[in-house]
Inverse folding.
């Protein structure tokens, strides 16, 4: 199976862009054979990663790029954040889920969920451009 061309678009570094991101991702996956559950996983992972980029890398470029590509074995999604410090979501501390609720510290649940839901999570950083690329794969027929 050959790879179809990737969809590529930049979105403003603004949480108000989330509905447009969902619409864009739906269009990119319109002809894929991913199940509704797999599509929901893609949406959830993008939302969590994009939200973290907006909230915690405020000094970055005014836009965050999003690529969606159907590949053999599933869909690859890449978020590209420029002008930022290194932040590898694979190694971020996970939330403590064993402690009683009153003892838990907020934060970390979204990234923990992403790491558990996607089939592969990759991060690359180009120091000269201060550019982080977070890529994940959801396996399935695409």
């Amino acid at each position: 199976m050959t790879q179809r061309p990737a969809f590529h678009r930049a979105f403003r570094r603004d949480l108000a862009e989330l509905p447009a991101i969902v619409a864009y991702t739906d269009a990119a996956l319109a002809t894929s054979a991913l199940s509704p559950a797999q599509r929901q996983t893609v949406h959830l992972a993008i939302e969590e990663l994009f939200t973290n980029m907006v909230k915690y890398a405020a000094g970055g470029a005014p836009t965050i790029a999003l690529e969606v590509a159907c590949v053999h074995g599933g869909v690859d999604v890449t978020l590209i954040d420029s002008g930022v410090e290194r932040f590898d979501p694979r190694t971020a501390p996970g939330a403590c889920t064993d402690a009683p609720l009153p003892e838990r510290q907020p934060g970390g649940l979204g990234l923990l969920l992403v790491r558990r839901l996607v089939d592969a999570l990759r991060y690359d950083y180009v120091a000269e451009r201060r550019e982080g690329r977070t890529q994940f794969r959801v396996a399935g027929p695409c």
Observations:
- The first strand starts at residue 7 and ends at 12.
- The domain at 7-139 is CATH 3.30.565.10 (Heat Shock Protein 90).
- The two ends are 10 Å apart (CA to CA).
